[in-house]
Design goal:
Blueprint lengths: L16 H11 L16 H18 L6 H13 L4 H9 L8 H26 L4 E11 L2 E9 L12 E10 L2 E9 L2 E2 H16 L2 H12 L7
Antiparallel strand pairs: 1-2, 2-3, 3-4, 4-5
Helix pairs in contact: 2-3, 3-5, 4-5, 4-6, 5-7
Amino acid sequence: MTRKCVPSIRLRHGRTLQALWLAAALIVPVSVIVTPPDAKSAEPAAESFVRTNLETGLSILNDHTLGEAERGEKLRGQLDSIIDSRGVAMFSLGFARRSATPKQIEQFVEVFRNYLLAYYASILTKYYKGQVVQITRCVEVDPQTYIVSAVLVNPAEANQKQFQPIEMDFRVNRDNGHFYITDFAVARMWFGIQQRDRIRSFLLETGNFSGLIVRLRVLTGLKQLLN
């Protein structure tokens, strides 16, 4: 049976652009996907795709033979190979697609891609403390789309410092037998919906598409996007 996951959208208008773009990552209420507690796996291959790639990303973070910059570059490269950054960018651009020129759209897609990869890498860097990946459910949205949920949990060693499990969700699409991620959430906060709301607010307030590009470049250059 197909379970439709329809996110709710709320907009918040901050007093400053800095607050809107930086602080909202942890405080903006966004979509919640509700699945029944007895939901069973809809697609084991989608689960395996998420587990394998999460473990690969975490192993990069745990590779202390690499310098910090080299780890970050390698992690972003790994993420770039599994995330449909163009699809997320176009979704996040929302209504502005109708008025932007083709050149502006292509410029936005490239800048947004860099921002997305830096943002996701910053999440893993911020929250990873030696935990291990555990897949909790996989729910079918349509025949080619799944929501795969996972947590980062403490390893079994008794002497391991304890951390709260980190909940993550991944919207995964299948195309010709290959999987790719089209959105992700931490603690049920979906990146694409957050960005669409913020971009909409920015453009409604400023009407400045070039300013949006500059803002994304500035945010991408921050060492820690979530601080």
